[in-house]
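Subject: Sanity check before I submit

Could someone independently write out the C-alpha cells for this chain? I want to compare against mine line by line before I put it in a report. The sequence has 118 residues.
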Amino acid sequence: MNYVWAFVIGGGICVIGQILIDLTGLTPARILTGYVVSGVVLSALGWFQPLAELAGAGATVPLLGFGHLLAEGVRTAVAEKGLLGVLTGGLTAAAGGITVSLVCGVLFALIAKSRDQN
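---
Independent answer below. Compare away.
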C-alpha cells in the first residue's frame, strides 16, 4: 500500500505542476520555485511530516521535499548556532544533495558530446 500512496501523492504533485504549465502563464522555473517555497511553508505549518509519512518518496523526492530539507536545516541550525543558523542551516542540510548534483553534472558534461539543439 505504501507504493500506491507514493504513486498517488507524487503523481498528484506532478499533475498540479502540469496543470499550472498548461493553464497559466507561469514558466517551469517559477513553478519549481513555488514547489520549493510550498515545501518550506508546509514544513513551517507542521503539515509536511504527516504528508511524508503517508506518501513516503512520493512527497520527499519532488521539490517539496527539498523545501522541507531547507526549512529543517535552518530550524536545526538556529537552535544550535542562533541567528547565524538562518544563513548557514539550509545549505548545510542540503550540501550532500547539491554536491552530488554538481559532480554528476560535471561528469556527464565530460562524457557526453555537446551539440547544437537546432
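---
OP: Matches mine. For the report I'm noting this point. The CA atoms of residues 104 and 110 lie 10 Å apart.
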